[in-house]
## 1
Amino acid sequence: MIKRNIFFLLLGLCLSQLNALIVMNDIVCVFTPGSEKVEIEEGMISAATLFLASKAQADLFLMEYERASNGNLKCGEALKYAREAIAKLEQSRGTYAHARDLGQKIGYLEYKRQWFQEYNYAKVVADRQMLPAMANKVTAYLCNMDILGIYSENINNLDKILGTLKEIKNQLELSRTPAVELVWQLLKEYAEATLFGNYATILGGDILMITGPPICDPHY
């Protein structure tokens, strides 16, 4: 039963990432043009890459955990993957935070706010069969063009994952097998962080695509 539950959680996490990229660089176009805006876009891509690298290390930990369903976990190997996942995620968080701080500094292009307020969120959410609870969470930010709020929410999501990863690491450093409930929590937090960024990209990117230039030109 434990194996089956982990399998379906992993499957759900994988499927959530097939829908779209999670980098959220599609919504950088709301910021005032200039070198800082370019830096924000590059930072979002770098942060997302580091997030995925962290998840890859977490997946390797999960593989070790799954292999040890008979109770013989290789704590050394599992610990190595947990530490790497933490290191990559801390880098990702720092890069997201820097991008958010740059966005606060340069501010929004206010004329675009109306686009976000008038967008038909309900129709797109229904058409794309998005999960209502997560879609509503993202929409609450986008309808006010609160992109900085989205960045902050994403950082909060990473903080949750880091907390769980560090708890797992602490158990492994004591040569203890982490409880399966802790592993389920880790899977859930990675999935939620992924889906949040995924939906922000889908909805925010669609708004800017149908109302503005086809690409995120630094002059717009």
Note: The chain has eight helices and no strands.
## 2
Amino acid sequence: MLQDNKTIKKIEEFLNKTFSYDNNNTNEKYIYGIIDILERIADTLRFEYSYTKTNISLEDFINSKILIDKNHLKVSCSKYGNVLGSGTPSISFQPQLLYFLLLNHKKEYRVLDIIHLFIKKVKPSLTILDFKKTETGAIRCYTNTRFAANTLRDYGLLKFTKKEAYKTWVLSLPGLIVASELKNEKSTWQIDKYDIKHNGFQIHHIIREAWDKIKKYDDFISFLFSICKPEAILFPTHKEIIDTAYEYLGKYWSIMNNANISNAERIKLSVEMIKKLEALPNMDNFIMNCLII
């Protein structure tokens, strides 16, 4: 039903004819107010009748038949269960989330703001199933974005300090490399949830394959120049840290792609390599003064 835009338009027209309210916010679309008020009416009725659960699933409603005749709206629901699937998996959000964090790194968004703005960017790739509310009231795609960030952080693609862990999400050097590659390739916000070349890995294959394009030293240096400030002097000033970082990053991606160890072991070894990378003398200084972040 909800894949049919004509039906949606008819519902909107029906509500406009049979429903009215005083709109004090002239900048807001009228339909937004109707949606909000209908939701509050439903909340009030749920409270009055102590009816907190929902017996009509989103999947059943999507497949229902809606008939509109003048001032009457009829809905016929059937039981479909979860045959429509569970929306976009969290792993599919990972590359675009890194890309979003790169493009917005200076804005100091909190986690909830990041999720909200990120979902607005990728919404054309999502379906109504991604906006299904769980039993706890959380929206599925919001929860899956958090899952995506947690996994990226587990593997060291996002920083994990007290500041970043609780308030915002910040790219680590490997995360910056992946996001910068996506930017250089003029990545879009299109998410392909049917791209399932993961083979048991918890990290999206686009991220795991990012090092392949710059694993040769000369390619790595060329890429580094592309993400450095024009005034940055890399050689000989930072040669030692660049060479060591190149070695550690190669090992890091080898660990992340090692199919002969478990996910738990990959996480453990990845984090150990990231700690070695971040502990390099003057690494923070190199990132802050040389890279375009």
Note: The chain has a mean pLDDT of 85.
## 3
Amino acid sequence: MYQEPELRTKSKQRFSLMLPAMCLGVAAMFGYFGLLMLVRADVVAWARNNFGADSEPWIMMAMIIPSIFIFLLPSYVAEQKAKRYSISCPNCCKDLTLSIQRILKTRCCSNCEKRIIETGRMRSNDLYARYCRRQWRNYLVYWFWAWPAGGIVMLIWHRFDSSAFNDCPQMIFLFGLIGSTATGWTLIRTNDLRYLAQTITSAVLLVVGISMFLQ
């Protein structure tokens, strides 16, 4: 059995690791794109001289791909360090690290539904699921549409003014990249299909944006 203060402490400690890591990932990705702005012309010229003009699209793609790993690396490292604050059900041994808030509300395991917090009134997981839908639907689910919306604005802007992003051409696909990475990661980690539409939309905008970027 766990005590409520113990779970709340572990939740705060995990959050204190993950939030800075995600912010660092975003900042590092923007920094990487800033670096690309400085070296892009030289790298493309080098590729043309050594591999021919046909190599330009491939070298551009090769420079884009690392940004995904740069964005995810801090979160991955933080996730590994946060394992020290993980919890598991004493009855079924399921990892409940990502379900701490659910446990604090229901007092029971989300898998076997047996009590794991000594005090407080137990509530069903179905009741908690309805509570979460009311609390989060208008926040996180709709917030993830901000990235596709921004991506559409960038693509339309570029369509009517092809010189608008000459100084920073990565903006054409940046919103699609962040959106597909952030929503895809959330979808994989939570298995919540409410994020599927945002992930697919962001991925489509990413592909279209990269295609326009390489033209």
Note: Residues 144-215 form one domain.
